[in-house]
Every structure is written in structure tokens, then in C-alpha cells.
Specification:
Rossmann fold; six-stranded parallel β-sheet
Amino acid sequence: MIRPQDFVERMRSFGYRYYAGVPCSSLTSLINYTINDRHLNYVSSANEGDALATCAGMVLGGQRAIVMMQNSGLGNAINPLTSLTHVFRIPVLLIVTLRGDPNAGDEPQHELMGRITGTLLETMEIPWEYFPTEARQTEGALQRAEAYMSREMRPYALVMRNGSIANQELPANPSTEAFPIAEISSTRRLAGISRRHLSRADALRRIIEQTPETNTAVVATTGYTGRELFALADRPNHLYLVGSMGCASSLGLGLAMARPDLRVVVIDGDGAALMRMGNFATLGAYGGANLIHILLDNEAHDSTGAQATVSGRMSFAGVAKACGYPIVREGDDLSVIDDLLSSQAQMGPRFGCLQIRTGAIEKLPRPTLSPAQVRTRFMAHTGARLRVAC
């Protein structure tokens, strides 16, 4: 059994100061130790996929990051593990608990995942080894992880058996800063998408005009949004997510935390936001004033045939307000974007929902750069570097 401080302090010497995850009883001591240390950053994510995307954003910002999750949470993380960290080649260290360990008793809901955890990681081409149980084993495990991540620029996993780490109390359980309750500033909302005059391209052009390359990062969700942004202006401060649907906002959160000197603009869609709506609460709790979350709502999964979403029956602005965003805007004209991007507010993240019509630019291209090339160009532009091998 290893003490949490023996592991975390060795991780600190490797440059790891950023953590995100979802609690598991086997992770209690490790999470408690990171929360207790004010020099470490821990994000309590709504689900494991969001935690992974948040850490990916931190790595893009030039920081080392660790995701902590129960093995059952691998199911929530498969999408970003295969279509975000794999294709963009983002090295994130995973700590995955082995609930349902075939060599130990556990609850029935963990039995199957316990048997297939190693196989599942291997199927996703993620090498793994068991989490160290003695302090003297830590150095070797981290060196092997570093060697792989430095060479392949992809995740590596440490699988933690129950009882691997000693108890660590949580003397204080600090809550995140609460911002003043937002008042929703709203322009008229048109009934029915067919009457809306703004296109996605109209909104993206306005965002491009107000996001200078020198100090702004723009993260575009998957589908038509990233493709149209690329078609209108392919710039080095753009990140086009080609997969990991719903993860743009969590990646943007991690990037904004790692790089407070950058203004991070996330361009979301209604289908993507609905898929991972729990992340609204995480952004409301942890987001800083440099994070701007713009949602383009056309009430449809536009890139797959414009099948209707359920967004016409709810209010994203109301959700953002309830989740703690201190500044919230909604409407069907470009003043929504103008207000968000011109605001000089110094507290918390800003959110805006802009209603648009369906449809896209004719003969819409796809990005000609690979995801890894987009990542490399973006990090070179922002001056960040992938900090892996010591």
C-alpha cells in the first residue's frame, strides 16, 4: 500500500499539477490529497468523458494533466478516448480503478467491467499497467508512462486495484466560488426555425471578426460548425473538433484554466450540448472570466440530416443561469455575440444562446489538416508545448 503523498509528490516532480475526475471509493484518498493541496488543481467533472476532455484542454494549454475514474466510467470516456485524445494525439495520464477485480469480491454491477477493463484499454490502443502499491515502484511506472507518451503522444493508463493506496482524510471540502445569479438578457426568440434569418455562417463570421489570433483561442464543436469555421477562415488559433461530440465546452474549460492569458471562445451546438449537459454545471463552477461559451441553436442535428433535437422545448439560457454562469444572453440576432465578446466582466464564464436556421454553406469542405496537425499548429501559435519526457 502506498501513501497518497508519495505518489502525488512524485507526480508533482514530473510537472503534474492538474487533475480532473469522477470520485470512486478506491480513489478517495488520492482525490482528497489533491483537493487539500491549494497548489494543485482538481476539477470535479460531471462524467468521465468530460473529465478526459477537460484534461485534454489543459494539455493543449501546455500543462500536465491526470484523469481519475472508476473503470465503469470508461464507458463514458470511450468517445473522447477514441476520437479526441487518440486522433489529436494528446498525452493524458489515466488512473482507472479496477472495481470488479476478478481476484477480489465486489458488487455484481462491477463484475463484467472488472473482467474486461484491461481488454477494453488494449482495444482502444491504450497501454496500461497496475498502479504502484509501494513507493519504490512509482518511479518505474511513471518512467514507462512518460516514455510511451513522449513517443506516441497518446494516453497511458495506471489500473488501480482496491487497497493500493492508504487513507487520506478530507479536513476541508472547499466549494467552488459562487458568482452572482445572472439575469438573462434576451432579444426576441422567433417561433420555428424556418423564420430565423441568421445562418451559422453569419454567426461564425461575426465571431471571427471579434477573435483576434494573438490572444484568443476558438474551439468549434464537431459537425458543420467546425467545417464552416474552417471554410470561412482557417486560422492557427482555431481548434476543429472532428469527433468527441459534446466535449468542446469541457475541452475549452481545461484550456481556459491552463491558459488564463488566453480568451477561450467555445462554439457549441444544441445537439452536442444536450449530449453532455452536465458540463454546464462544471463550467459554471470552475470557469473563469476568460471563458466564453456560445451555443448556436437550430433545433436540429444539422450535419446528419437535420433531425430535430428537443431544444425548442427548453431554454439553454435558463440552464446556464441555473448552473451558475454569471452572464447569460439569448436571442436571434448578432447582438448576442457582440455582447459576450465585448464584455469586460471580470467574474466567471459567459454564456450565449443564438437561435439560427438550419443549413450550411454549399459544397462545404472538411479541414485539410489532420487533427494532430491542427493541434501542433495551435500549440505552436499559442506558445504551449507538450510537456512529456523529463
